[in-house]
Amino acid sequence: MSRHPLLKVENVTVRFGVLTAVNQVSFDVHQGELLGLIGPNGAGKTTMLRAITGVVNATEGEVYLSGAPLVGLTIERRIRQGLSLSQQLVKPLRNLSLLENVALAAGGQKTVSPLRALSHVSNANELAIGMQMLEKVGIADRAHQMPGTQPLGILKRLELARALALKPQLFLLDEPLAGLNSSEARGLANTITEIHQSGMTVVLIEHNLSEVMRLCQRLIVLDNGKKIGDGMPREVMQDPVVRAAYLGGDTLATSQSQEEPEHA
Questions:
Q1: Phi–psi pair at 78, nearest 5 degrees
Q2: What is the DSSP letter of 29?
Q3: What does DSSP say about strands 218-223 and 226-231: parallel, antiparallel, or unpaired?
């Protein structure tokens, strides 16, 4: 891994009126890492991810990707700088096939206009990228099927494929295992590992702690908007402050993939 961070988050604070959702959080992500960003519901994880991608504006602090500042840039500019987000709630275009959905994302590299990007979906290069991404996430055999006929597990993989089609430097995943049964969750977690092992730098928000412990090389823990842990997974999860954030310090939950989306 490079000595210089790929992503640098520096004293980021996000306020919504009188509510402070993220409070002076700093951390680095290095090239080649698979980093887990975890914490109980309402800890500020999703807000932190949204501050990185530009969905919400940081009230204070800075975010850098490969040394270039991101604060103040639009979401589209940040994507072009090398960010990509796989969201928890999957919303494919229902009138396009799985392949066309991914090809459209690949075409989005050429233009910020969705309508202009749509005109590129018949382009052989975008379709080839789309098929490659579907193969990477294990659903190439469904390429010409429609999203409306697919179970959640397949749609989660489609969301990964669409995000990967943007060819990011940094791949952000917001609770990709949410809503999946244990078998589906383990299978998708294995796919995320394969994506990481192919050379992708990954930041993962996830409530399924058994899979987090299996996948992640390092953990950042947030609670009530503040960073309370940073380090190797087993060491971090043995920290009394971190344990207290989960179930009052009792035995940690190991599978919470059915929880509702976090709103803070």
A1: -65, -35
A2: E
A3: antiparallel
Whether residue 77 is found in the same domain as residue 100: no
pLDDT tier at 36, thresholds 50, 70, 90: very high
Between strands 34-38 and 218-223, the pairing is parallel
Rg (CA), the chain: 18
Tell me the per-residue pLDDT of 120-179, one tens digit each, with 9 for 90 and over: 555 788 899 999 999 999 999 999 999 999 999 999 999 999 999 999 999 999 999 999
Q: Are residues 74 and 172 in the same domain?
A: yes
Domain shared by 74 and 174, yes or no: yes
Residues 68 and 189 in one domain: yes
Residue with tokens 């960003």: 37
Q: Are residues 34 and 151 in the same domain?
A: no
The H or E element that residue 229 is part of is strand 226-231
- Same domain for 106 and 161, yes or no, is yes
What is the domain extent for residue 129?
A: 91-167
Is-contact 123 107, C-beta < 8 A?
yes
* Amino acid at position 46, single letter: T
Beta bridge partners of 36: 204, 219
Q: What pTM was estimated for this model as a whole?
A: 0.85
